[in-house]
Amino acid sequence: MLEQLRAKPGGEDLPVVIGDFADTEVDGAFTVVVLALHTIFGLPTPERQIRCFENAAAHLEPGGVFVVEARVMFPEEFRGGHAVEPRFFDEQQVEIQIQRFDAVTQRVQVTNVHLSEGGVTLNAYENQYTTPREFDLMGRMAGLRLRDRWESWKRELFTASSRRHVSVYERRA
Question: How many CA atoms lie within 13 A of 53 on its CB side?
Fold first, then answer.
């Protein structure tokens, strides 16, 4: 990823820090810290996710915001803890996502099965799911308050049927 960034126009000029986003510290304070594309679920435990909120808050200026984009799951869509979902398809390829959800631990095991004329490719990973309400509690624990929540980056209204959320947590002054 770093090689791809550096290959972009101006990519050589951007400062980069490589590390675990729950613990890595950088110099300075910021007005915005962002975790996009469900990244926070990659942290393996709720404790690591809490630490991520604390770390983000520690890097914010007063009034600065921590923005988290994440998926919203509907456990009732899992039959016996399993779900199969088509991701995309056309004449040359198909991708199916197979998921297993443990409602007690909120762990999600995912395998993406990509089928094409070139063969079969598998991509598997495991995530720690967290609900928007649990994120709100993590924010409060880190000294942040929920300022806004939308369904998308277009600031559409977040509702009970929203499939994802963009939550904006503000550092108290």
Answer: 26
Query: Which pTM does this prediction carry?
Result: 0.88
CATH of the domain at 115: 2.20.25.570
Same domain (yes/no): 61, 25: yes
Q: Which residues of 63-93 are buried (b: 16+ CB within 10 A; e: fewer)?
A: ebbbbbbbeebeeeebeeeebeeeeeeeeee
In 72-116 the beta strands, taken as DSSP E runs, fall at 82-89, 93-102, 107-116
Between CA 162 and CA 172, with CA 168 as vertex, the angle to 5 degrees is: 150
The one-character DSSP state at 71 is E
Reduce the DSSP state of residue 138 to 3 states and report it: helix
The number of folded domains in the chain is: 2
Q: Tell me: do 40 and 84 sit in the same domain.
A: no
pLDDT digits (tens, 9 = 90+) for 73-126: 998 899 999 999 999 999 999 999 999 999 999 999 999 999 999 999 999 999
Among 71, 69, 132, 61, CA closest to 97: 71
